[in-house]
Design a protein that fits this description.
The complex is a heterodimer.
Chain A lengths: L38 H5 L17 E7 L5 E7 L1 H4 L4 E6 H4 L27 E2 L5 E7 L2 H9 L2 E6 L6 H4 L20 E9 L2 H7 L2 E12 L8 E7 L4 E6 L4 H12 L6 E4 L15 H13 L3 E4 L2 H7 L3 E12 L5 E13 L8 H7 L11 E10 L13 H19 L3 H8 L8 E2 L6 E2 L4 H12 L1 H13 L3 E10 L7 H6 L8 E7 L5 E5 L8 H13 L6 E5 L16 H28 L6 E4 L2 E4 L5 H25 L12 E3 H10 L12 E6 L8 E11 L4 E12 L6 H21 L29 E5 L17 H18 L13 H23 L6
Parallel strand pairs in A: 1-12, 10-11, 14-15, 20-21, 27-28
Antiparallel strand pairs in A: 1-5, 2-4, 2-6, 3-5, 7-15, 8-13, 9-10, 9-12, 13-14, 16-17, 18-26, 19-20, 19-25, 22-23, 23-24, 26-27
Helix pairs in contact in A: 10-11, 11-12, 11-21, 16-17, 17-19, 20-21
Chain B lengths: L2 E8 L2 E8 L4 H8 L18 E4 L2 E4 L12 E3 L12 H8 L9 H14 L5 H7 L11 H9 L15 H9 L4
Parallel strand pairs in B: 1-5
Antiparallel strand pairs in B: 1-2, 3-4, 3-5
Helix pairs in contact in B: 2-5
Classes of the chains: A alpha+beta, B alpha+beta.
The structure holds FE2/S2 (inorganic) cluster (2 copies).
Amino acid sequence: MAADDVHAVTSLRARPDAAMPAGPDDAGQFGRPARRREDLHHLLGRGRFTDDIVASGEDALHLTILRSPHAHARIRRIDVARAKAMPGVIEVLTGADLTQNVGPLRANWIWPRMPLPEHRALSEKVARYVGEGVALVVATDRYIAADALEAIDIDYEVLAAVTDPYRAAQAGASVVHPELDGASIRGNVLQHVPVRAGNYAAARRKADVIVTQRLRNQNLVPGAMEPRSVHASYDMTTDVVTIHLSSQAPHIMKRMLAQVLNVDEHRLRVIAPDVGGGFGAKLHLYPEDVLVTAMAFRLKRAVKWTSTRTEDFLSTNHGRDHVQEVEICATRDGTITGLKATIWGNLGAYVSGMGPGIPAVNCGMILTGVYRIPNLHVDTNLMLTNTSRVDTYRGAGRPEATYLIETMVDRVARRLGLDPVEVRRRNFIPPSAFPYTIASHAFCYDSGDYPKNLDKALEIVGYASQRAKQERLRKRGRYLGIGLATYTEFTGIGNGNLLAMFGFDYGGWEYGRVLVHPTGTVEIHTGSADQGQGHATSYVQIVCDVLEIPAGQCSVVEGDTGRVEFGLGTFNSRSMAVGGAALHEAARRLLAKAKRMAAHALGVTADDIVYAKGIFSVRREMSPFAQGSRVLRRGTRDLVGKVYRHLLGVQPVQVGAGRDKISWEEVARLAHFLTTYPNGLEPGLDERVFHRPKDFVFPFGTYAAVVEVDVETGDVDVRRLVAVDDCGRIINPLLARGQVHGGAAQGLGQALLEQSLYTDDGRPRAANWMGYAFPRALHMPYIEAEHTVTPTDRNALGVKGIGESGSICTPPAIVNAVLDALSPLGVTHLDMPLLPEQVLSAISTARRERSRSVDAIGSGAVAT
Amino acid sequence: MSEHAITVVVNGVRHQGRVPSRKLLVHYLRDDLRLTSVHVGCDSTQCGACTVHVDGHAVKSCTVLAVQADGSTLGTVEGVATDGVLHPLQQAFQDCHALQCGFCTPGMIMSSLDLLERYPDPSDAQVRAWLKGNFCRCTGYQHIIEAIRSVGHGSGSVPNEHAGTREGSAQARVCHGC
Ligand code: FES
Ligand code: FES
């Protein structure tokens, strides 16, 4: 390898001399790389995930599920007698046994007038995807429960199946829900959602270039390392069932379980203990959640189900799975004038929680990304197919949108012979245009400075020198590619009104509570809990930044509907922008009240109190009037004191009398035990906030990938991956970086490795990691994560969100890089994942076509 | 189902018990001994969430029968810290933010302890290759690798081949978690 060759950036060790980040106790500040308070118990082996739970003092019964091996089949006969008779088997039930007491599962994002296919926790008559539950067993032991499944006799009539969203829309495709076909929907198209803006036809007529491409955003498995798990235990005394659930939204699950099981919500407590990753797939209600809870009520015992990895592949929601036909119009100088797209987005066999909104809103209404594109013609088709449900997976719609626009922008650049950097710049929404309402009218972007962010990425990757290197290497027959992608997305599910119009039934708020114990320790309650992101650490930073007390004085309560009364949950990178803003507001209100308490004790008004680092003190430069009134107040109190002492022989409490300072702890005690409270204040320091954001916030960023493609093997080597995100103000840079790394790994997985494929009869080709390539340490390049900071005024913290950026922007950056590398060979398109065999076959196809057209030109024919 | 008497020493404590012949070691550790740090992440011996030490070596306990462990000395992450003091590797995991959800963490720690035993000062490539049997969906591995390498013997002595280059400084900057 020559000295100027690109090389993998791999070998720097961690520097022991680098500045240590703040420890948990001095970490109470916004912006510091505080180490996490969540780590210790995991490191010591004391993590508590749902499968680790022992509740109500008994070992749980094990529930297992018989799953359909067919993608579409009628259940002719099912006989559970043999299974029931096995020793250790407590219960065996089929769909028919449950219809009475267990209602169908509901979704949360139901388009106005959209019909909902009935989704039962166990299917009674027809199974519609491989893995759909048709019977359950409850047994004393996991091995017996597994044996009993094999003793169930079941007879299927196999029906034709369709798993591809595009094919499902074609005439002659088998129909997933014939009961809806013709009545309320046509074929498998559950809903068609059009978006129109400007005059696309005119833009097309006037365009200098029109580029079309059919794109595939493949079906992916979210793959949290902790498989789904649910444990429900019955409390005889309270008649309450406590459900431990590996979930991102315990409060929503409580509401939905109450509806599906028709029980009063106060009889349910949902606890999401440690959750081993969610990534959107643990956000929604699943049949197993319903079944385990129903069995705990029925048997009045603890019951649990923990997914095997194979079950997780088959039954947990998948993500993405779009086919997109795209046409983009531009003028010669690279100005993009119009965008047309038809999207077929897979929802699976039933509608999951937010399923419909993902293609229709999260993708179809934000296709224009960071660009000013005035003319739009978008049609999104929500497709039913014979796959497991497809719903939120890290990014949820924005990866599909970003991949579409970012790969198309590169195509425009290539067609026009322009630098993709220049085409981006030409079309960016300029910093001066914010707030900016995009053409779809669905979103109004808050703030952004795309050129600055792009420049930073270019500088880090060394764009000009990489281009020079590319030239040099090409001469030697080596194919280096540089790929860029610039994204924006919306986070912090805001403005409940707008969403409600689109049928979203969550609302847009988050709940936060900050309370002070009489001894001065602080408890933070949040409805937006953690699945590994480090929420507790960050929330403490937010609250301690306001209260100026040590982080060690705070604890965080989350993920338990019994202790935190309300909440929506963790999704859409909303926790800091909405959950954090709620806590920020609660902390501010709390401090204001504490000041009034302190002022009362010290005999001044709250305006004359200054607060710093746990001490309330009387302002030095009080006005003469304030000083006078303080003397007067003191005099009165002294007098009252004397009278009490004289007449009754008792001493009124006067903690602050005669002093100029009072501590946080003293105020905490006074707040609970004062005999008189200042004007109408209630005792206690306990503030609860339902924070409803004004609107969404819009993080953005630029990712740059440098790849080398081995044209002999088709291997793609990612040499550099630069991520420059702008998520507004950063609460904890260490944790933000962790989010970028994890997202980038999932994005790289999508670009290069992962896909969930189906056979013609609808069977998943991969039912676990044997057949599904998951990014391992070896696959990952060194990620260079940096930031620009453009605050937002849509929340008091100025924060946006960082959880999804890596999975949104990495795939187009890598794919653009590979196509850039292969452009001299004439390769213009590749579908993800870019497996070596696909790369090789694209190269050989391009070479063949080239030589054919060269031959044709040589023989006088006109190449078309 | 036949049952067998087994004796194992786990984290220094001797346990005697009877197990059905088909019981997996991971289930014995989790269900019988309540060592719930040993996680089950897959059913195809790939993810390494179940990694424990058997006679000092990292082994995937989901792929060993409990009876096969009879007479062995076992170690789980519950036994890694001594007297409430974290092992340097555990400390490095916290300092480098090498865990997010924590599900893969016990297996990562047990696996990399074995790595460090064999290669006290592993290169980046060695660590990445060694971890092929340990999946993490949260971290992208980068901080895990930094944590492991930071406790390698002679840390800091390996020259940084990218020092002074754009690559080198970018790396150095992103490394301040360690
Ligand atoms: S559980 Fe043992 S390797 Fe996955
Ligand atoms: S930290 Fe979540 S899987 Fe590794």
